[in-house]
Amino acid sequence: MHSDNPYGSRASVISLDSGWRRRQRQAVKRGIKRKVKLTKGHFIAEYQVPTAVKNAIEPVYAANRTTEFSHMRYTAATCDPDDFTEANGFSLRTKLYNRETELLIAVTSYNEDKTLYARTLHGVMMNIRDICKTKQSTFWRKDAEEGLPNWQKITVALIVDGLDEMDKTVLDILATVGVYQDGIMKKQVDGQDTVAHIFEYTTQLSVDAKPQLVLPQGDDPLNLVPVQIILVIKAKNQKKINSHRWLFNAIGRILEPEVCVLIDAGTKPGHKSIYYLWEAFHNDRHLGGCCGEIHAMLKGGKKLLNPLVAAQNFEYKMSNILDKPLESSFGYVSVLPGAFSAYRYRAIQGRPLEQYFHGDHSLAARLGDKGINGMSIFQKNMFLAEDRILCFELVAKKHEQWTLTYVKPSKAETDVPENAAELIGQRRRWLNGSFAASVYALVNFYKIYQSDHGIIRLFFLHIQALFNAVQLVFTWFSLANLWLTFSIIIDLLPSQGIVIGGNPIIHWINQGLKWIYLVFLALQFVLALGNRPKGERMAYSATLWIYAALALYLLVCSFWLTGLSFKAIPQALSEHKSFIQTFLSPPLGPLMAAMTATFGIYFFASLLYCDPMHMFSSFFQYLLLAPSFINVLNVYAFCNLHDVSWGTKGSDKNEALPSLKSRTAIGADAPIVDDTTNTQEDVDAAFQETVTRALTKIVVKNTREKPTMDDDNKTFRTRLVAAWMLSNAALAIGIENIHGWLDITSPNITGKFIHKWLDEMALKRNAYFSVLLYFTFGLAFVRFLGCLYYWAGLHLSRGFRRLFRLN
């Protein structure tokens, strides 16, 4: 390609932060001086975009009277997001152009690299193209047929949590599409620190994850449509809830969208996935929020070679087949994942957002005891799963009848942890947050009565609350129940006549495996209370392998015993026992029921949804790693309950940005500041370098960060872990010794008495085991009924809309 082509060349690996800071200083030193009037004391200015970016806009879109294609707009917001209002002098282009916003799509990011960021942004832009060109919806089709620019009803907000923390290569991607330029951000305006740097531009360019530039090609119907982008770069890292406050209380308040879609950087929305989310709101006026199906990114199946990835893939799949449809059938999905979900903007106004923003540490001083400074450690953990709080408050909103649902056709993919240390760190936040939020939802269930839900909906919400309470109890006692399941099943081998190398040998093999199980379980508490996962990678990896081997042994025993139970059916029927009585007889009957629940329901539900591949590619790995998910992940999460990862990191690196000082000019009606803007030639020359950097793959070094510990939080942590351990130990010991102690010193004791005593003890233990397995079967069956109901409703509503041509 020719040298004057800004999209032509690629460079080698570059320095990140130092190069970015150098470019800020260079841009300030040269350029054209100009005077800019402050708007109610705020710096708002427009800057011309590179010629190549402006020329990339198709003529059919560029022929308007606005500057949205020729100039980028910058606002130095020196205020809290709650004060970013039109009354205070702030506004956004979409509002200034009097455009209605139907869909506001927000991408929140922290320090994701440009590959992850481009994957998400390009996926969003392709979804917007598909929405604007869809033939499925009268709402969008009508504007297209009348020649109206329906892309003007959609706005994308890119919110970056901290300028210093962000990967600066992302800025090259954003500069390539025209929404950012070096040397424009201001550190201060009249002594007030800039809280957020806001850029606005409407672009038709994109960069995919390869990275490769995506340009409009003639009249190609696959060309991207113009996308209105608002880029908010927060000066300091203030966490995700604060980013959502910029979205809902600043941008949302000005644009007043109908639907807000939330996406985490790194999540790739699938084909028409955002349209399907919007469609759910369009077809249900009582819908307050929804989510799509998130699945693991497998790269064509290559990542399934990693057992951890395969196990997580199975978890994601079964959650989307059993759990989400069940909750959707009740009308209350307990968690709409922040990585890919949507809310009706007016539905979350008021108490839902107020409660949600109590977790924003930047509001701590203003909220006082209601903010995080007044929260207990349990409440702080609750806000680690802040999306669960928002979901509950939305359904329980006073005098409203908002519901939540799951939209199966809407799909998105995301990366999952590929090693034990990363997985443990991720699940700590998930498990502690969801546990605390689940307790919150149950304790505050009475608020449902203040809503306007109908009697039928309230009835099913009560059923769901009961189901969630049972699951919470199961989660609490999962440690003991897993141990009891393991010990009882392997002890059934000799009692059923299965002898390997003689009865004493199989007995001592089982005893040895039990000791190995308990030793590694005790090790988890030692590791969790004193070490970080990344500092003990070998120990955690070894633990996963050990428990996988024990799980394999448990599976072999279970299949063997299940086979025996089927083999015994003809004999039992010949003894005039009913089939039901045979099926319910312990210990093999309940085991067969549990195996049916585990395998039969999973397989049938997956086939019902025409999505069975994970059963063949990931189920076995999940079964092997399932004990580790309880014994390793749960133990680490509870032992680190005190670590809520609040607080901001230092922000002392903004010296590269200039500050502005206003002055009053003679005859001017507002203060003015001196600003520097580049000539078109300099803008185009800098753009060539920017594109070169954007299309270059970079090596990024990950840095470790240690959490801060608080003594009071550790005390609460210790008490809760002690209660959890003791209650699980009490249950395990109680069941193991349910028949009391055998007095071997009694003169009346005989061999026959001992055998009878052991048989009675085994009978009582097996009775508990039967109850446990039937509860497992029952919970799985309820989930299956929910997924069946959702499946039927999904296909009936789709057929109904097609029959009557609704939508």
Automatic annotation (TrEMBL):
GO cellular component assignments: cell septum; plasma membrane
GO molecular function, one term: chitin synthase activity
Organism annotation: Collybia nuda
One annotated GO biological process: cell wall organization
Record keywords, A-Z: Cell membrane, Cell wall biogenesis/degradation, Glycosyltransferase, Membrane, Transferase, Transmembrane, Transmembrane helix
E.C. number(s) listed in UniProt: 2.4.1.16
Name listed for the protein in its UniProt record: Chitin synthase
CDD domains named in the record: Chitin_synth_C
